[in-house]
Amino acid sequence: MSTAESRLAFEDFQVGRVFEFGGRQVDRDEVLAFAAAYDPQPFHLDEEAANASVLGGLSASGWHTCAMTMRMMCDGYLLNSTSQGSPGLDNIRWLKPVRPGDTLNVRMSILEARPSKNRPQIGLVRSQWEVRNQHGDTVLTMEGWGMFGRREAAAGAEVPPAAG
Amino acid sequence: MSTAESRLAFEDFQVGRVFEFGGRQVDRDEVLAFAAAYDPQPFHLDEEAANASVLGGLSASGWHTCAMTMRMMCDGYLLNSTSQGSPGLDNIRWLKPVRPGDTLNVRMSILEARPSKNRPQIGLVRSQWEVRNQHGDTVLTMEGWGMFGRREAAAGAEVPPAAG
């Protein structure tokens, strides 16, 4: 168990800070299972159809790539943070096919950070994520806001609130 | 097998047209399995942690909701279309928790449609998707471009190209 003090809090996500994590290998059986469950388009399910498609071979569903990225984010920082979830994401771009056997890594850059006006105990952090394969090709980019508990607000809870 | 003529092509996605489909029930075991694989934050995995969180109870990972929506899109129109994939999505907003036992439906509205300049055999379609639960609450919205084969371009393939 990480203590409250050791977990990443709002204050740790300074604008310009970069986090790198990942190393997930893309498993062929998992690519096929995810596609069968959630995205059964022929080019994600069938080698021949995939070879004939614009993707030029079997590739993971874009949603599977997002899900694998989420898992890398969880293991890379979220599970050791004061995260309280995300209201949404923007600018998801699937730039290159993700192939079975690829190894994916994530580079996260902090774009904006500000305390919440309505909920002083949390802060809002806008990040950009770039997912790259073992060749250095960027396969996915996305941006989004996350909500994180504030270390300073927790400490400040014992201070009487200012008038007004 | 659907014939080329019966499949939805670029020309069928007229601006303003609305498609409704779905009816997917959210399965509790699947919610837990998806979270364990891709989004193991305590509030997606554990009833007590979920009750104590801002989500107020166990809910599907936002990525799981997207994946279930993708499956409804596949069954609702994509698998019976000339779809050639999507370059990306924008404005994903997870507006309300999705609970085990919920039934989800999708309303898709066509926002823009134009032939590709570089690839005359395809057209680009921008859509908005709204996902609602059985209470009529909107739980997810997103927008994005899709690429679809053009029926007219296929027919026009036998006509000599215009000079210039």
Give the uncertain stretches of chain A in residue-range form.
Answer: 157-164
Beta-strand percent range of chain A: 25-35%
By secondary-structure content and strand pairing, the structural class of chain A works out as alpha+beta
Largest interface by Cβ-Cβ < 8 Å: A-B, 34 and 34 residues
Helix residue percentage of chain A? 25-40%
Oligomer: homodimer
H/E series of chain A, N to C? EHHHHEEEEH
Give the CA-based shape of chain A: elongated
The main sheet of chain A comes to:
5 strands, antiparallel
Q: Would you tell me the overall average pLDDT of chain A? A: 90
Number-wise, the strands of chain A total 5
Please provide a brief summary of the model.
The first copy, chain A, has helices spanning 28-38, 42-45, 47-52, 62-76, 151-156, and strands at residues 18-25, 88-94, 103-115, 122-132, 138-149. Chain A is an alpha+beta fold and 164 residues long. Chain A starts with 17 loop residues before the first strand and ends in an 8-residue tail after the last helix.
SSE order and pairing:
The structure is a homodimer of 164-residue chains.
Chain A: E1 18-25, H1 28-38, H2 42-45, H3 47-52, H4 62-76, E2 88-94, E3 103-115, E4 122-132, E5 138-149, H5 151-156
Antiparallel strand pairs in A: 1-3, 2-5, 3-4, 4-5
